[in-house]
Amino acid sequence: MTTDTPHTLVHLTDSGLAVTADDDVRGREVVDRNGDEVGTVDDLVVDPEEKKVRFLQVGSGGFLGLGERKQLIPVDAIVRIDEKVHIAQDRGHVAGAPAYDPDLVPAGEYYEELYGYYGYPPFWAAGYAYPPYPFYL
Q: Which positions make up the signal peptide (predicted)?
């Protein structure tokens, strides 16, 4: 598999793009398959060319933003969205996800590792099918 993603991904807040209020999950709590809190959606990582959300940026821990850890979770992991965002993994799995340091790991390589960690094919892989986002019930 190649580590060259076809597009540069950016945070929604830096993209100039917008989502409708009904589709915006920023600020919502993320819970795991057991209903345990994982964190809060801080931002969405989007593909500005295809106008698709690729990852949730989830913040957890810390106090008043200090010491908070940021994790990226592929949108493929979302199983349901209601007043919360429900994901298929447990919070221990999310906590063990690869950390990203742009000075050490190229973004494409990190994204590929992250998709592999969560068990999903990367969005640039042949045959990839974008999940029907959002998944409201």
A: none
